[in-house]
Amino acid sequence: MAVAATCGTGAGSSACMASAASKSNVTSFQRRGPRASGTDSGGPRLVSIAGTRPSVRNGQLLVSSGLPALDQLLGGGLAVGTVLLIEEDKYNIYSPLLFKYFLAEGIISGHTLLVASAKEDPADILQELPAPLLDDNYKKELDEDVYNHKTPESNAKMKIAWRYQLLPKMEQIGPVSSSRFGHYYDASKRIPQELIETSKWHGFFLPKKISSPLKVEPRSLTHGYLKLLQFIQNIIYEEGFDGSNPQKKQKNILRIGIQNLGSPLWGDNICCTENCDNSHSLTKFLYLLRGLLRTSLSACIITMPTHLIQNKAVIARVTNLSDTVVGLESFIGSEKETNPLYKDYHGLIHIRQIPRLNNLICDESDVKDLAFKLKKKLFTIEYITKLKSYGLQDQKYFLSGHLQRKFVVKKNPYFRGLYTLKKTY
Amino acid sequence: MFPELNNLLNITPDRAEQGKLTLLCDAKTDGSFLVHHFLSFYLKANCKVCFVALIQSFSHYNIVGQKLGVSLTLARERGQLVFLEGLKSSADVFFQAHGEPHPLQFLREASPGNLQPLFEFVREALKPVDNGEAAWRCPVLLVDDLGLLLSLGVGAVAVLDFVHYCRATVCWELKGNMVVLVHDSGDAEDEENDILLHGLSHQSHLILRTEGLATGFCRDVHGQLRILWRRPSQPTAQRDRSLTYQYKIQDKNVSFFAKGMSPAVL
Hints:
Helix content of chain A is 25%, strand content 22%. The model of chain A is unreliable at 1-46, 145-155, 171-178 and 387-425 (pLDDT under 50). By secondary structure, chain A is α/β, with parallel strands linked by helices. Chain B is of the alpha/beta class. Chain B contains nine helices and nine strands. Chain B has a nine-stranded mixed beta sheet, sandwiched between helices. Chain B is globular and about 60 Å long. Chains A and B meet through helix 8, helix 9 and helix 10 of A and helix 2, helix 3, helix 5, helix 7 and helix 9 of B.
């Protein structure tokens, strides 16, 4: 059971994170050269690639994952040169959303996209990206949302459980479409066609790339992975993301999205059997991909159906080989669907791993109980240890993630005694 | 290097032991701060270091090293540090066939290969230079994430063979030290990893095991460190000494304290 002994400092650090997030992108922060050209960075240069910002902690170049709430949990954003692995939820309903947010963020920021899938044509995936929310639209959304949620007790000073008041609140920062890092998206609308057309993207659709039946000699990688790796390497080299093309004046980021990696559609039977003969294919692919990313200005999102992988050892190895790992667990079909604690949410989100890049420590969030919900338009992530009140006549139940205690508050305001009826942990 | 850890291990850069194999093991937490510690420690102790870095890039170790007071670029230029960067050379090795064998040759092979090219590389890097001056003290081999080789298709037995060869050369012949890091998969039932870990624990002189706290995540205590001194070659007339501390990682330092004595709690 986690013990948050110093919630006060936690609130302080999240406040300074909030202030960093609202700073505009162009700061006087002089950043060292990007990790791509780590060997030839002479001195600090001011880099202004659209849609990126330096990390407040170590000057690492960050890109937004498409969800400002997720950026905050990952310590400011996704570092350039790293892999974000999303462990898919059971019915693959919410992980495509995160995938699309990442790609949509790339389009809005003007980055080049590389979309790889074995299931859907990348052109179709791009058509389904969510539309960005503009300033005044978002304000309307936020206002009506706050109005629905406002309960009179939520801001009252707590007498017994006063530590919960010190918990950092999930920041609901205002619309940031004017700044250049992190945007909000409307999940119910499609992205305007002209934005897709003006953006630069490359698609890798596996059935089209593998036309002939497999006649290649058995390599150590599955054929699908091999083709994908070669494709990515070609794009990185030809478009100069690894700094090999000196004529390129304007530096840009390559956002790579790989959907359902490890599923049988890629030709890998790691999800089908426990002891497959080609079990190193996936891990080798991840290692080689990471090698390509570290030497180029790119960031990658991979969704993987880890719940299908039979061999737990492979999941552990995959986690070690990825930089950032986020797991989604949806409540559909599970017993948690009827749990009153999770009434408002659609699932849990687990931040399993955050990389420690250029540093001994990383910005881990203090609260580990995070849940997400998909409202009509917005995908939000919230801390689940907030107190809820059930208005049942003259009894109010305060629930939290860690303890459940029933308090009775007498209606008579002159007798504000709190009686503990039952303690259950 | 972290001064508190030096005190706990009872070593100083002037008085480093020789011929020892140190195993760094982490379970449910990240033990990579120990790698940074040993890297900066041996560089400060004026030893020749061969670093096989498979999991992170050179700039990562360099930036952390600067926080700890060593410059890896300078050490590399002087010849004190031989750095094999796995990530950077992996794609080249895989796609293009080189003439001479590359240390990471096994990436290209379909069947699990052996690590002989890697061993040759290490031996070449650490062999004493034959001009009269003795520039550096004992040679040191540092491997960041030996368990990663299992993910890349090499068998556990091949990795253990590699460690054996390196020990024979580096620890016994050249009177140097070895430090390797292996992740403990815990309950993930990774048999190959367990074979590797048990085999290494049996051979090592010093085991540093970092674990997450049993009670879960805590902001002020990041984990627990178990130090175990062993004497694998001699029959154990005396029991192996073992100590347990808890630690908190800060920006440039790691502070150690006895269990339950975290400054935040007292």
